[in-house]
C-alpha cells in the first residue's frame, strides 16, 4: 500500500513540476487531453463491455461547440466547456439509444456509421467552417478573470481537470453503479434475470462516457486554438481504441499510458516517417490483438499477480 | 502493489522520452520553416519543388545572413488545417523558427497565419489563394506573396466575360480557397455584365466528379468556372470531357498552374485562358533560373515555386537590412522594400500584407504552336499589380487605418 | 433546385451514377455477409482489399502495361491469395474469442495497407483509363449512357447473382450453409471445415478486389477510397441485416439509387442519406430489413 502511495505522489509531483523542468507544456496538455478521452472510452469498453467505434463524434462535437461558443459568442472557457460537454452528452444519448438496440459487432458498426454521419454534417455546416475548421479560437479568461493564454496557466487548468476525471472514473467504477456495469459486461442475461434494467444502465454508461469524451474535445480546442474535421474523423475513433487497447482495457492507468505512448509516437514520428505512422499504428493494433489483449498494464498486472502467488 | 510501481516507471520513461524531443532554442541560426502539401493533390505545383526552390534561395544568398547560418525545416501538412497549425506552433515554440513559409491550401494557410500572428513571427504565404489572408484573417505578420483569388478573378473572369461567356456555373472546391475564388469571380462576372446561374461545391480532393458534371450540364450556363486547383482541377477537366460537357460549355480554369497544363496536355487545354503571376519563359532571367531548377527537379517551376525562391530572398534581404531577425523590425523593413528579382519587378508589400506585382493573362498554345518542351503559353496581356489585386480601400483587414 | 425543373437526362444520369455506386455497395456487402456468415467476424479490411484491387489494376497497367481484361482476372486471384494468407496468419487464431477482436485486427490490417499505399503513391489519386472496347457512350434517345458504367452495373449484378447461385443452389453452397449452422457436424461428415473457412475468406477478398478493379476507371484510385466506402457499406449491412445474400445485394443497389436521387433533389444530403435511413431502420426494425436475429 505504501508503495502505491509513493508512486502516486511521485507521479503527481512530476505532473505538477512538468512545466518547470522544461517539458513542452503544449505536448503534455495534448497528452492529458487524450488521456481523458481514453479514460472516458475505457469506462465504456473496459467496465461495460461496449465497443463504440465512433467516439470521435462526441470528442469532435464538443470541440466544435466549445470553439464556436468561445470564438463567436465570446463565452468564458469554463462555460464553453460545459456547453461542449452538454452537446456531447446529448448526442451520446441519441446515438446510444439507437445503438444499444443491437449488440456486439452491430453496436460497433452502428456507432461508427452514426459518427460518420456527424462527420459529413460537420463537413457541410457553416458553423464548423467545413474543411477549414474553426481556427484561431482564443483561450479566454477562466471565470472571466484568469487569462489562460499563458501555456503554464493553461497546463495547470488541464491537469486539474484530468485529475478530477481520473478520480471520478475510479469513484464510478467502485460505486454500486459500477458494479452493475461490470455484472452486465460479465454476463448480460444474468444481470437481466437479477432484475436490472440493463438497457438503462448501458445507456447511462454510454452517456457518461460521451460526456467525458466531450470534455477532452473541448479542452483540446482551447489548448490548440482550433477544432477541425480530424476531431470527428473515424481515424480519431480508431486512435482512442488503440490507446485503450494498448494500455490495458479495464485498468485505471492503462488508457493514460496508452494515450501517452500513442501521442508521443505520433509527435516524434510524424515528420520523420510520414505515412508510416499509420502503418505503425496498424501494426500495434495487430500485435495487441494477436499477442497481448490485456494491454501493457493488464499484462503487467497479470505478471506481477502471478509472481506474488508463487512467492 | 508492485504493479503500480511499474505503471510509474513506464510513465516516467514516457515523460523522459517526451522531454528529449524538446530542441534547444538556438539564437545562432536564422531558421525558416516551410509547411506545404508534399504528397497530395497540390504536391506537384509546390511540394518538394518548393523545398528545392527555397534551398536554392538560401544557397544563392550564401547560406548565411548577418554571419548566422540560415537553416530550413520543412514538413507536409497533408491538407489538414490541424496539422499545419500544430506544426507551426511547435516549430515556433520548440525549434525557434524565425520565419514561416506557408505553401498550398488556403485552409492550412489561414491556420498558420493565426499561429504566426499570435506568436509574432513573419509569415509568408505563397501557394494559398484565399483573399481572407489579407482581409478578415489578416495579421501584421502575414505577407501574401504570389497571387490571390481576387487577382485571378479580376484577370481571368473579366477576360472570359469579354470573350462572350456571359452566364456562369461554378464548380467549387468546398474550402477557404474555392469559396473565395467563387465569390471573387462571381463579383467580377456580375460587374462586367454577366450572370451567375448556380454553383456546386465538391469536397477537396474529390474522387468522382461525374455527378457534379451532370449538375453543371443541367444548368445550361455558357461557362463552367472551375474554382478549384491542382489535382481537382485536372480531374474536373477530364470528367467534363468524358461527359461531353465541353461540347456545350466553355471551361474556365480559374487557377491553372503550368504543372496542371503539363499533366493534362495541350490537346486537352489548348485555347484556355488563365491567369498566372509568373511564367518561366518570359525573360532571360526567368529562363536562366528555371533551367537551374529544371536540372534539379526535372520539371519547369510553377509560379508557386518561383515565389518560394523570391520570398526567401526577400526575407533574407530584409533581415540583412534590418540588422536583426527581430520580427517587428523585419516586418517594418519588408513593408519598405522594393522587390526586384526574377519573380517580380518593382513589387512591394502593402500595409495589409499583400505583395503587389504584375500579373499575366495567358493563353494555352495549340499543340502545333508549341516549339519546345514546356512551351505552353502565349502572353495575352500584362496586368499591373494595382489593377489586378483588390485595392487597399476595399480591404476588411481590421488593423488597416481608414 | 426545383426537382420538376430537372431535365430527364440529369435525373437519369444521377440515377445511373447511383446505380453504379449501388453495385459497389452490393458487391462489398455481399462479401462482408459471406465472410460474417462463416467466420463470424466483420472484415474491416474489406475496404482496403477493394482499394488494393483498384491499385492492382492501376499498377498492372502503369508498370507492366497489362490491360483491363487481364487485370480483371489476375487481380482478384492475387488479392484472394492474399486473403488466404491473412486468414491463415491472423484470423485463424481469433475464432474462439469475442468477434470484436476480429474487427479490431482487420481494422489494424486496413491501416497498414492504407499507410503503405499512401507512402508509395500519395493521396492525390491516380487515373485509370476506361478500356478501349468500353469507351464512349450510347445515345438511348432519352439519355446518354456511358458504356463503361453500364458494364459495371451488368458485371456486378452478374457476380452477385453468380455468388447467390453458388451458395443457395449448389452442393458446395449447401455444405457451406451447413457449416455456418453447425461446423462440428459438418466436420464429422468428413469435410475439412478450416479449409472451407480459409477459402471463403479468400473468395470474399477476391470479390472485394473485383469491385476495386471495376471501380478503377470510374473514380480516382487513391489509398483512402477503401475507408471512405467501407463505413457506408457497414451502414448498408446494418440496414439489410446480414442474414440473406439476396437481401444485402438488393439493399446495396437500392441505397445507391436513393443516394443518386438525393443528389438530384437535395445534393447537400447525399452523403448522409444512407446513415439517416440506417437510423430509421434501427428504430423501426432493429434486426434490419432482411435480418433474422431479433
Description:
The complex is a heterotrimer of chains A (311), B (402) and C (294). Chain A has 311 residues and is mostly helical. Chain A is 75% helix and 1% strand. Chain A contains 13 helices and 2 strands, in the order αααααββαααααααα. Chain A has a two-stranded antiparallel ribbon with strand order 1-2. In chain B, the strands form 4 sheets. Chain B has a 6-stranded mixed β-sheet, sandwiched between helices. Chain B has a 4-stranded parallel β-sheet with strand order 8-7-9-10, with helices on both faces. A 3-stranded antiparallel β-sheet of chain B has the order 11-15-16. The radius of gyration of chain B is 22 Å and the shape is globular. The relative contact order of chain B is 0.13. In chain C, helix 2 crosses helix 3 and helix 5 packs across helix 6. The interface between A and B is large, with 51 and 45 residues.
Secondary-structure map:
The complex is a heterotrimer of chains A (311), B (402) and C (294).
Chain A: H1 2-17, H2 25-48, H3 56-71, H4 77-99, H5 104-124, E1 141-142, E2 146-147, H6 151-174, H7 176-186, H8 188-193, H9 198-224, H10 234-247, H11 254-273, H12 276-290, H13 295-310
Antiparallel strand pairs in A: 1-2
Helix pairs in contact in A: 2-6, 2-9, 2-10, 2-11, 3-4, 3-5, 3-9, 4-5, 4-9, 6-7, 7-9, 10-11, 10-12, 10-13
Chain B: H1 2-20, E1 29-36, H2 47-60, E2 64-65, E3 68-76, H3 81-95, E4 99-102, H4 106-119, E5 123-125, E6 142-144, H5 149-162, E7 167-173, H6 176-191, E8 195-202, H7 210-218, E9 223-227, H8 230-242, H9 245-248, E10 250-253, H10 258-264, H11 266-269, E11 273-276, H12 284-297, H13 303-322, H14 327-336, E12 338-339, E13 347-349, E14 355-356, E15 359-364, E16 377-383, H15 385-388
Parallel strand pairs in B: 1-3, 1-4, 4-5, 5-6, 7-8, 7-9, 9-10
Antiparallel strand pairs in B: 2-3, 11-15, 12-13, 13-14, 15-16
Helix pairs in contact in B: 2-13, 3-4, 5-6, 8-10, 13-14
Chain C: H1 8-39, H2 46-64, H3 68-89, H4 99-121, E1 137-139, E2 144-146, H5 147-169, H6 171-181, H7 183-188, H8 193-215, H9 225-240, H10 245-265, H11 273-284
Antiparallel strand pairs in C: 1-2
Helix pairs in contact in C: 1-5, 1-8, 1-9, 1-10, 2-3, 2-4, 2-8, 2-9, 3-8, 5-6, 5-8, 9-10, 9-11
Amino acid at each position: 500500500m505504501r508503495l502505491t502511495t509513493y508512486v502516486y505522489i511521485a507521479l503527481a509531483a512530476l505532473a505538477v513540476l512538468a512545466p518547470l523542468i522544461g517539458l513542452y507544456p503544449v505536448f503534455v496538455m495534448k497528452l492529458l487531453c487524450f488521456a481523458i478521452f481514453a479514460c472516458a472510452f475505457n469506462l465504456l469498453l473496459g467496465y461495460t463491455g461496449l465497443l463504440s467505434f465512433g467516439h470521435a463524434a462526441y470528442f469532435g462535437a464538443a470541440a466544435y461547440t466549445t470553439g464556436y461558443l468561445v470564438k463567436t459568442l465570446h463565452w468564458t472557457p469554463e462555460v464553453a466547456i460545459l456547453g461542449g460537454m452538454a452537446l456531447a452528452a446529448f448526442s451520446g444519448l441519441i446515438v446510444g439509444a439507437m445503438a444499444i438496440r443491437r449488440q456486439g459487432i452491430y453496436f460497433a458498426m452502428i456507432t461508427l456509421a452514426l459518427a460518420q454521419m456527424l462527420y459529413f454534417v460537420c463537413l457541410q455546416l457553416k458553423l464548423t467552417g467545413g474543411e477549414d475548421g474553426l481556427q484561431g479560437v482564443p483561450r479566454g479568461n477562466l471565470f472571466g478573470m484568469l487569462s489562460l493564454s499563458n501555456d503554464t496557466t493553461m497546463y495547470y487548468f488541464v491537469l486539474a481537470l484530468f485529475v478530477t476525471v481520473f478520480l471520478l472514473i475510479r469513484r464510478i467504477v467502485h460505486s454500486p453503479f459500477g458494479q452493475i456495469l461490470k455484472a452486465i459486461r460479465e454476463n448480460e442475461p444474468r444481470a437481466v434475470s437479477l432484475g436490472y434494467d440493463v438497457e438503462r444502465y448501458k445507456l447511462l454508461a454510454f452517456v457518461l462516457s460521451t460526456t467525458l469524451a466531450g470534455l477532452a474535445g473541448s479542452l483540446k480546442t482551447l489548448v490548440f486554438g482550433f477544432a477541425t474535421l480530424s476531431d470527428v474523423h473515424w481515424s480519431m475513433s480508431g486512435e482512442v481504441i488503440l490507446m485503450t487497447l494498448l494500455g490495458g482495457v479495464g485498468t485505471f492507468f492503462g488508457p493514460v499510458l496508452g494515450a501517452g505512448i500513442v501521442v508521443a509516437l505520433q509527435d516524434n514520428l510524424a515528420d520523420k516517417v510520414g505515412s508510416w505512422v499509420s502503418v505503425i499504428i496498424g501494426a500495434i493494433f495487430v500485435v495487441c490483438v494477436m499477442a497481448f489483449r490485456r494491454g501493457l498494464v493488464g499484462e503487467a498486472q497479470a505478471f506481477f499477480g502471478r509472481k506474488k502467488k508463487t512467492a | 502493489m508492485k504493479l503500480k510501481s511499474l505503471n510509474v516507471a513506464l510513465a516516467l520513461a514516457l515523460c523522459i522520452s517526451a522531454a528529449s524531443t524538446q530542441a534547444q532554442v538556438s539564437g545562432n541560426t536564422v531558421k525558416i520553416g516551410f509547411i506545404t502539401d508534399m504528397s497530395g493533390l497540390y504536391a506537384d505545383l509546390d511540394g518538394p519543388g518548393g523545398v528545392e526552390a527555397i534551398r536554392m534561395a538560401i544557397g544563392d544568398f550564401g547560406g548565411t545572413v548577418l554571419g548566422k547560418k540560415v537553416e530550413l525545416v520543412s514538413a507536409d501538412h497533408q491538407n489538414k488545417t490541424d496539422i499545419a497549425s500544430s506544426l507551426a506552433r511547435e516549430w515556433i515554440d520548440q525549434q525557434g523558427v524565425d520565419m514561416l513559409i506557408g505553401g498550398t491550401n488556403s485552409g492550412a494557410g489561414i491556420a498558420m497565419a493565426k499561429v504566426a500572428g499570435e506568436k509574432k513571427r513573419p509569415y509568408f504565404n505563397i501557394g494559398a489563394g484565399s483573399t481572407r489572408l489579407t482581409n478578415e484573417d489578416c495579421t501584421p505578420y502575414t505577407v501574401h506573396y504570389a497571387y490571390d483569388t481576387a487577382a485571378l478573378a479580376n484577370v481571368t473572369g473579366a477576360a472570359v466575360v469579354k470573350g462572350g461567356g456571359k452566364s456562369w456555373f461554378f464548380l467549387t472546391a468546398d474550402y477557404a480557397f474555392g469559396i473565395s475564388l467563387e465569390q471573387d469571380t462571381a463579383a467580377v462576372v456580375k460587374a462586367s455584365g454577366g450572370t451567375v446561374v448556380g454553383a456546386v461545391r465538391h469536397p477537396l480532393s474529390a474522387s468522382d466528379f461525374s455527378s457534379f458534371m451532370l449538375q453543371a450540364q443541367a444548368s445550361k450556363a455558357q461557362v463552367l468556372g472551375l474554382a478549384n486547383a491542382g489535382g481537382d482541377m485536372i480531374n474536373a477537366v477530364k470528367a467534363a470531357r468524358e461527359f461531353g460537357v465541353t461540347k456545350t460549355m466553355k471551361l474556365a480554369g480559374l487557377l491553372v498552374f503550368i504543372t496542371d497544363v503539363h499533366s493534362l496536355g495541350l490537346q486537352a487545354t489548348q485555347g484556355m485562358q488563365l491567369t498566372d503571376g509568373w511564367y518561366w519563359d518570359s525573360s532571360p532571367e526567368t529562363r536562366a533560373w528555371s533551367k537551374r531548377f529544371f536540372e534539379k527537379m526535372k520539371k519547369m517551376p510553377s509560379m508557386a515555386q518561383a515565389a518560394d525562391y523570391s520570398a526567401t530572398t526577400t526575407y533574407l534581404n530584409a533581415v540583412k537590412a534590418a540588422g536583426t531577425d527581430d520580427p517587428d523590425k523585419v516586418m517594418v523593413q519588408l513593408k519598405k522594400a522594393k522587390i526586384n528579382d526574377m519573380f517580380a519587378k518593382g513589387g512591394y508589400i502593402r500595409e495589409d500584407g499583400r505583395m503587389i506585382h504584375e500579373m499575366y493573362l495567358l493563353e494555352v498554345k495549340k499543340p502545333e504552336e508549341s516549339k519546345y518542351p514546356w512551351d505552353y503559353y502565349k502572353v495575352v496581356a500584362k496586368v499591373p499589380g494595382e489593377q489586378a489585386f483588390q485595392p487597399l480601400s476595399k480591404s476588411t483587414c481590421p488593423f488597416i487605418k481608414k | 433546385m426545383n426537382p420538376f425543373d430537372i431535365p430527364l437526362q440529369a435525373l437519369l444520369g444521377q440515377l445511373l451514377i447511383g446505380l453504379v455506386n449501388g453495385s459497389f455497395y452490393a458487391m462489398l456487402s455481399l462479401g462482408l455477409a459471406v465472410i460474417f456468415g462463416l467466420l463470424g467476424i466483420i472484415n474491416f479490411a474489406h475496404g482496403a482489399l477493394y482499394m488494393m484491387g483498384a491499385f492492382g489494376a492501376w499498377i498492372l497497367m502503369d508498370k507492366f502495361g497489362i490491360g483491363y481484361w487481364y487485370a480483371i482476372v489476375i487481380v482478384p486471384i492475387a488479392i484472394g491469395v492474399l486473403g488466404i494468407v491473412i486468414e491463415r496468419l491472423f484470423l485463424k487464431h481469433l475464432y474462439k474469442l469475442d468477434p470484436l477482436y476480429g474487427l479490431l485486427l482487420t481494422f489494424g490490417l486496413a491501416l497498414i495497407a492504407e499507410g503503405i499505399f499512401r507512402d508509395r503513391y500519395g493521396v492525390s489519386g491516380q487515373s485509370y483509363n476506361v478500356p478501349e472496347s468500353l469507351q464512349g457512350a450510347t445515345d438511348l434517345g432519352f439519355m446518354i449512357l456511358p458504356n463503361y458504367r453500364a458494364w459495371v452495373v451488368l458485371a456486378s449484378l452478374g457476380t452477385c447473382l453468380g455468388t447467390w447461385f453458388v451458395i443457395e443452389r449448389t452442393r458446395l453452397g449447401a455444405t457451406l450453409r451447413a457449416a455456418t449452422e453447425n461446423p462440428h457436424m459438418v466436420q464429422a461428415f468428413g469435410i475439412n471445415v478450416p479449409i472451407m473457412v480459409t477459402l471463403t475468406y479468400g473468395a470474399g477478398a477476391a470479390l472485394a478486389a473485383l469491385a476495386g478493379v471495376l471501380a478503377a476507371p470510374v473514380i480516382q484510385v487513391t489509398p483512402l477510397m477503401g475507408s471512405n466506402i467501407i463505413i457506408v457499406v457497414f451502414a448498408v449491412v446494418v440496414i439489410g441485416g446480414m442474414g440473406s445474400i439476396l437481401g444485402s445485394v438488393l439493399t446495396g443497389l437500392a441505397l445507391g439509387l436513393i443516394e443518386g436521387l438525393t443528389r438530384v433533389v437535395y445534393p447537400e444530403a447525399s452523403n448522409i442519406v444512407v446513415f439517416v435511413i440506417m437510423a430509421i431502420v434501427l428504430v423501426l426494425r432493429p434486426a434490419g430489413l432482411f435480418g433474422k436475429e431479433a
